[in-house]
Amino acid sequence: MFIGAERWSEIDPSWPDTPILRFIPGADSGTLDFFVAQVFGDSLDDLPKADLLAILTANVSAGRLRALNAERAVVERTREEILELVITEIVRPAIVESWSLTESIFQRPAIEAEVAAIPNAVMEFRSWLTWDFITSPQSSDPATAGVFTAILGSLWVTLIAFLVSVPLGVGAATYLEEFSKGSKLDGLIETNINNLAGVPSIIYGMLGLAVFVRFFGQITSGIAFGMADPSTANGRTILSAGLTLGLLILPLVIINAREAIRAVPKALREGAYGLGATKWQTVWSHVLPYALPGILTGVILSVSRAFGETAPLIVVGVSTFIVVNPDSPFAKFTTLPVQIYQWTSRPQEEFQRLAAAGILVLLVLLLAVNATAIFLRNRFSRRY
Predict the structure, then answer these.
(1) All structural domains of the chain with their residue ranges
(2) pLDDT tens for residues 38-97?
(3) Residue 7's beta-bridge partner residues?
(4) Per-residue DSSP letters for 98-114?
(5) Residues near 252 by beta carbon (within 8 Å), at least 6 away in sequence
(6) Which residue from 22, 73, 219, 375 lies 20 to 30 Å from 346 (Cα-Cα)?
(7) The pLDDT value given to residue 92
(8) Backbone phi, psi, residue 60, to 5°
(9) Do residues 248 and 301 touch, judged by C-beta distance below 8 A?
(10) Half-sphere exposure at residue 195, Cβ-oriented, CA atoms within 13 angstroms
(11) Buried b (16+ CB within 10 A) or exposed e, 81-96
């Protein structure tokens, strides 16, 4: 196919204007680096930025190139960054087949025979749960896919849900336990709170879609503040998701906070009143500090549920594939549970392994969040 061409640019104008060296590596060469060195006369480390950019654009798919440009324009990147992209996207060997740990231990002869039948294949043991996996964004290539973007999205959404539900939940619990006069309205509110705690999460997703995404779309998309992103002008943002999860866990926060406040000894209140404290002073300075460990326990359970939710986020409009890290409440997003769900729905076994690694990351994050909350709870328990 190269008989009528003397230079690579004669085949494709976007390719480097360098002579074609009449050397085709053998099937046992094993690396693309060797092929590049023979074709271009230089190693990748010696090629200028323009040649590296040409190699990148000619060998990656159009969709992957759009994703890279969405993250940051490729032409604006430095030579070293483009070189890293060439190595990551093109040179790095592709995964042909993968096996679980059990299969690797008990079926090794069969695996070795299968590898021997694949030309240029190299068998290696690798862990899917690595630091690169944690710090890399999502990718269509399982060898380079990671969960960093999903982790940031989960933290953003959970933080907003926490900021919405905890003040409202503790305030509502304080009113119902300390200031309520037992009116019919208070009884209706209490009944509805107990009922809402058992509503399926998908219903909250539909509520969030109707209220936060559509009705308040101008606010949740950032248009009202002049901070809108064209890709999230429809209101499907982190803020909408966080508010939806905030409503989801609000009844749980209220119920647990009420139980904690109800457990405060009556003698503590009477002692404060005997010293001349007002109702508000008693609640603020004595009741709430004493009940704080129990309130934090309820918050731990509620935040853990919000961190692992998937169904309401899918309804609100979470992205299933995104490589750009969220940088504001008005950005599009994905979360770790949604990322795991997306990987498990793909047919390639490699993505099943990634899903298992993602589940481990999710468990570690939940344990870390819970451990922090338990530490704070125990600290306040000793203080009061």
Answers:
(1) 8-91, 96-125, 148-383
(2) 444 456 777 888 888 888 888 777 777 887 887 788 888 888 888 888 877 777 666 667
(3) 19
(4) ---HHHHHHSHHHHHHH
(5) 169, 197, 298, 301, 302, 305
(6) 73
(7) 66
(8) -100, 155
(9) no
(10) 7
(11) ebbebbeebbbeeeee
Cα dist from 22 to 13, 15, 54, 263, whole Å = 20, 17, 21, 85
Q: What angle do CA 130, 131, 132 make, to 5 degrees?
A: 90
Report in angstroms the alpha-carbon separations of 338 from 45, 67, 308, 374.
Answer: 39, 19, 9, 27
Of 297, 4, 369, nearest in space to 151 by CA: 369
3-state DSSP call for residue 22? coil
Fold of 148-383: MetI-like fold (1.10.3720)
In this structure, which amino acid lies at residue 249?
I
Q: What is the predicted pLDDT for the residue at 35?
A: 43
Contacts of 181 (CB under 8 A, 6+ apart): none
Q: What are phi and psi of 303, to 5 degrees?
A: -65, -35
Tell me the pLDDT tens digit for each residue of 325-374: 888 888 888 999 999 998 988 888 888 889 999 999 999 998 888 888 78
Phi-psi region at 237: left, alpha or beta (left = phi > 0; alpha = psi -120 to 50): beta
Q: Is the pLDDT of residue 3 over 70?
A: no
Mean pLDDT, all residues of the chain: 81
**Whole-number Å distance between alpha carbons of 362 and 101:** 21
- Give the whole-angstrom CA distance, residue 324 versus residue 138: 9
